Amino acid sequence: MNTKYLAAAAASLMLAASVSAHAEGKNGVAAVVNGEKVTVAEIRKIYDGAPQIHTQEKWDTFYGKALDAWVSSRALLQAANKSDVRKSAEYRKQLEAAGNDIAARLYMKQELEKQIDEKELKRLYDQYKTNFVSEKEIKARHILVDNENVANDVVAKIAKGENFDELAKQYSKEKRIDLGYFTKDMMVPDFGNVAFSMKKGEFSQKPIKTQFGYHIIVVDDVRNSQPLSYKDAEPQLKAILAQEAAKKLLSTVGQNAKIEKYSLDGKMIK
User: Fold this and answer.
1) How many helices (H) and strands (E) does the chain have?
2) What does CATH list as the number for 135-224?
3) What's the pTM?
4) What confidence tens digit (pLDDT) does each residue in 53-74 have?
């Protein structure tokens, strides 16, 4: 089982859960387009439903970018609704195709949910814990710049005691400062080799060059990785079982269907 994938999935879930649930926007409203409200909750649902985004952008950064796109999309939909596009043959054709796709996906989802067994989940989790191998991992922050001279200037400022996060806001081309916990092989070699040679509380005395630019690292913690709890591992365990069940389902419906296949020259394929 891919334990690193489990760890990454769980980290994303924990990040999503940690975000405050207080009302945002203007009483929960993100925008009003021609009198129609767009709520913060609508945008939040997209963010929470895509854990991979969490490792790239914080919620407030994503919100700022998504809001304009969301407003434009809503305005476009309103304009479409005022037109006669829904009466067109092309609309009906695409609507039917989309409906067929939705029906097939919902059917598969319903059938797979029936086959997710709690006992099998726990068996899979026990297998994961048995095979788990602890690795050294660190928690770090970084500043990424394109110019080596600028990177050296940043290192000098850190050495003088200037705040790392404030320098990151000022200089870093990547807004994701906190990299969280990671193992050595999760990073490119030049980055990982330096980071894992450092102790907790240390910062890199020289910029680290990678294909992305010049990095300045500060190590916030060093620890040995631990297996995920059952609760944190459960979503990925379910995904593993669902993938196996999907293969069986597709095989079963194919075997139970009466199918005739033909080659391009019209001959039946046996």
Assistant:
1) 10, 8
2) 3.10.50.40
3) 0.54
4) 877 788 888 998 999 999 999 9
